[in-house]
Amino acid sequence: MRAFIGFVALSLIAVGLALALYHIPFGQDRMDVARDYLARSVRDTGAPNVVTGIVVNYRALDTLGEVTVLFSASLGVGMLMTWRSPGGGRPLPGASLIVRRGAGFLFPFILLFGGYIFVHGHLTPGGGFQGGAVIASAFLLLYLGIPGYLLARRPLAAIESLTGITFVAIGIIGLAVGGYFLNNFLPKGSVFSLFSAGVIPILYMVIGLKVGAELAGVVANMIGGGEE
Amino acid sequence: MIYIALLVVGMLGAGIAACLLRDLLAAVVAAAAVSLILSGFFYLLQAPDVAMAEAAIGAGLTTAIFVIAIRKTGRHEE
Amino acid sequence: MNAGDPMVYAGAVGLILIGLFTVITRRNLIKIIIGLTLLDGGVNLLLVAVGYIQGRTAPIITPAHPDTARMVDPIPQALVLTAIVIGLGVTALGLGLAIRVYGHYNTLDTRKIRGLKW
Fold first, then answer.
1. C116 touches chain A (CB under 8 A)
2. ipTM
3. Residue B77 lies in a domain
4. Domains defined for chain C, CATH in brackets
5. What does the pLDDT read at residue A85?
6. pLDDT of residue A226
7. How many CB pairs under 8 A join B and C?
8. Between A90, A127, A137, which is nearest B61 by CB?
9. In chain B, what residues touch A117 (CB-CB under 8 Å)?
């Protein structure tokens, strides 16, 4: 019965999607507002990576909302996982010597790579979200490699709160200086150099640290070893 | 053309495996394979930012938290 | 990517359907969450594929490629970037709920969990 309803629903959805996609030929130019974004991005935002320009400048308010959603999810995981379930929560087995040493050795390099990704978010592919995920995976590596590793909860919470406050503060300074929230009030600098594009690198750094702290917190809460 | 067809077939095959495998750990690995091929598609579709996000988040962290959750519950689907 | 390659559409729609099928027919909570991630990936691929334009490059201006008229649509990419991160949040929250349910009922089978069967 369940499978039958499933098949009927799926065939309806398949037909609907096929009918819709029939009118959207693959690989055709149907840009509208995007043409404007592409043409004006470097002049408006100073960021050669147009996706970054959209995420952190044109639609920065949406990004603030997204970071808030991620924060809520992280908070929810924390609230769900602090009550230890009776059955689960076996300790992780000890890793071999190579894994332990390798995790300790690679950890700073992975952090550096994550930082590189979000510092160069306005010039090259990548940005705060990707860099934050890489940083969180560095902490995951420590959890897997070093038995009994505990992520300190307080610095993590401090980074998360401070970056959130910084994001909103930059937005309010933009409102005071330029008349709208998250205005790009710093000088744009010369295109293609690291210190350019005004507040975009700062905002992406803030986003990267915040996402990294939140995702590392999610991993720590899921493993359940983060209690103080 | 043939590469695209192979990638599509591989991705859908891994997706079907993720749906049908009774061993949850194997299903999660199949879902990670789907994410990896998806990341390749994003690269081919000229979206390097999205490809990086999918590789780091979809194939990396999602798989890790699935494995942690399976450790804390049961490995086999009854 | 060659001329007129709608196979990417087929892959995206196929992934959406597989994900939906998993969500509808499987009874294990973790399997249902795996189905949600597949569905998520399919929708993301569909969005990026709709924004792709034949023969153009990624929307990143470099000194070697300064011509913005030769770039693909950046808006679906910005949208999907957001969607991937939110997808991880949804997955993590769902798994947290599943672990709590397992702690309470000692099973992940939706038939045996009171209030979740249909």
1. no
2. 0.90
3. no
4. 7-105 (1.10.287)
5. 45
6. 39
7. 149
8. A137
9. 52
